[in-house]
Write a structure and sequence with these properties.
Helix content is 52%, strand content 6%. It is mostly helical and 302 residues long. The protein has one domain. The structure holds zinc ion (2 copies). The site of one zinc ion has 5 residues, from loops.
């Protein structure tokens, strides 16, 4: 496994820096709010449900962060020293292509990324949220990150709905908490004499710090849940048919090797265990270089 040089990890683009920082800040922030603030109000401390959700939260959070970090750290770019000999390339003259920017002959399915300025093996796309390219070597981590993001945002969404319901004493409304707070407490701003208590009025209308943070995270939760569902729906054929995003758009299914092998090309030969943690070794059954579109069995076992 080749790792990216440390000085290349932090993206050069300002928007990507913001998105990577958002992932690194918001995921732990949302986890903290849910586990420390929301969960103790939903379930009794020490109950079976409380322990189950604590463990589930820990599992999802650790997999989200570690798959994100591995996706960023693992280098999917081409190592020029591993490129095939001219003789090998002559066997597939149409499949190899010259990259003038990297000054190399690049194998089939690789593409040059303008942002990373490298050629990437079995390149799928450049991800702005991780600030790196997603290709042959780091596809596993990227996909698990997205899948765990979907599961986590679904769990967080359900927990937040229940939390809002209980927090408001059964008066659940699809509105942000600060506004709900203003609406529910407005009758308490008059004292016994019927005079307006400005201090109480402000207290009821202006949301607390926690309510503001929760409202923002709850709103983001909707966006993330919807986005990951759309993303996985759109990219599902990549898992099933073993194609890259570029090949899917150009309807090139020449590298489809059947469901099992296609999945192994992403999740590795120990894919039944690879979901537990990105640190579980699951070697890829292909070197990402010697693809043969006509003879689909060639190249396996490397
Ligand atoms: Zn290149
Ligand atoms: Zn890139």
């Amino acid at each position: 496994m080749k790792l990216r040089p440390l000085n290349k990890i932090w993206p050069g683009d300002n928007m990507e820096r913001m998105l990577v920082s958002a992932c690194l800040g918001l995921i732990p922030g949302a986890y903290y709010i849910l586990i420390i603030k929301v969960l103790p109000e939903l379930l009794d401390y020490g109950s079976a449900g409380y322990i189950f959700l604590q463990l589930l939260g820990m599992f999802l959070f650790s997999n989200l962060m570690s798959n994100f970090i591995m996706c960023v750290l693992v280098d999917p770019s081409i190592d020029p020293s591993t490129m095939g000999s001219p003789l090998e390339r002559e066997k597939q003259p149409r499949e190899w292509h010259e990259c003038k920017k990297c000054d190399i002959w690049a194998p089939p399915r690789s593409h040059h990324c303008k942002i990373c300025d490298v050629c990437v093996l079995k390149r799928d796309h450049h991800c702005n949220f991780t600030g790196c390219c997603v290709g042959h070597a780091n596809y596993r981590y990227f996909f698990y990150f997205v899948i765990y993001m979907l599961i986590s945002s679904l769990v967080a969404f359900i927990a937040s709905l229940v939390f809002v319901y209980f927090l408001r004493g059964g008066s659940y409304k699809f509105v942000l908490l600060p506004f709900a707070n203003g609406l529910y407490d407005v009758r308490e701003v008059f004292n016994e004499k019927g005079e307006l208590n400005v201090k109480e009025l402000l207290k009821s209308v202006i949301p607390s710090q926690f309510e503001m943070v929760f409202a923002v995270l709850f709103g983001l939760n909707w966006v993330v849940l919807f986005s990951t569902i759309c993303f996985l729906y759109q990219r599902w054929p990549i898992l099933i048919s073993g194609v890259t995003w570029y090949e899917l758009r150009t309807k090139n299914f020449n590298y489809d090797r059947g469901l099992r092998l296609n999945l192994q090309m992403i999740f590795g030969s120990r894919m039944s265990l690879s979901w537990i943690s990105p640190f579980i070794s699951s070697p890829l059954p292909h070197d990402g270089i010697h693809w043969m579109s006509e003879d689909k069995d060639a190249g396996d076992g490397n």
